[in-house]
Amino acid sequence: MKRLVLILLTAVSLVSCRKWVLEYRTPCPSYLFFDIRNRNILSDSDAVFTAVYSQPGGIFLDDGTATAGQIRDRAFFFLIKNTPAVRGYGLAGNASLIREGSLWRCPSGRDYAPLFRFQYSEAVGVESFTVPVEFVKDYCHVTVRFVGYEGFQTRSGTFPFDVVIHGNTNGIDALDGEPLRGPYEYAPKEGTTAGQFEFNIPRLADTSLSMELHGREGILDESGLVRSIDLFEKIRQNGGVDWKQKNLPDMVLEIDFVRWEVSVTIDAWEQKNLFYEY
Fold it and tell me: What are the start-end ranges of the H helices in the chain?
């Protein structure tokens, strides 16, 4: 009888021990997927870079690049473990930027990226969970048109000066969306339309945004800096831009070459379907 009781107690002990181990083991991995709510702004083949960090703690866990189509079809995911929640970000159009952790900067000499970005924060689900995200437009496309310069154009009909853009914002912290201070310079080329230049600018950190005109050697006998225009001030005088708004607008600046008057047209960006419906 004593032997039977001992066997039963041992069995109960083993079951209890097994239950304790199962209840307090390290949490099982969970699969993280993304649901891009406004994915119609991308084509199926557009690359999307994503990164994930633990929360709390902010420890980097993983990153990767996939196409928008792969994300849509749930062919791309992160395997998450040992953290109760995650946070992170995603970028599209970031090819011209250089990464430093969650900081992405554009070197001088390059046009700023046509950048779309999302950020997220979510509790980790059991086995798998899907995070809904939405891209925001983190750049402003600028078109500059010079008028009234026809009497000064070169023999080939091109604009007689080189254009150089200067600023003190050269990137973004993708985790929180804050612009990064740093010197930036870019010289856009004249487009197929004479006297027209196009370039991108980031979400600005301060009021430093200017455009310089440099005379070309042998043209009008004016080499070097000819004129500097405070673009930020001209934009402000023409209605201004809220650089903290969700989606940055595009704008067109028309500059009278004779009077040096500047008019600015600001076009609010709409989440148009740029390619096709999914």
Answer: 2-23, 68-72, 231-237
Residues 36-59 pLDDT 10s: 998 788 888 999 999 999 999 899
Give the Cα separation of 19 and 26 in Å (integer). Answer: 14
Q: How many domains does the chain have?
A: 2
| Averaged pLDDT, 117-136 | 94
Alpha carbons 108 and 167: distance in angstroms, whole number: 10
Q: Are 71 and 34 in contact (CB under 8 A)?
A: yes
Report the CATH number that the domain containing residue 40 is assigned in CATH.
2.60.40.2100
Residue 248 lies inside a defined structural domain of this protein: yes
168 with 202, same domain: the answer is: yes
Q: What's the longest Cα–Cα distance across the chain? A: 116
- List the 116-123 sheet strands across, edge first: 60-67, 47-55, 85-92, 116-123, 136-137
pLDDT at 239: 85
Rounded-to-integer distance, Cα 266 and Cα 80, Å: 43
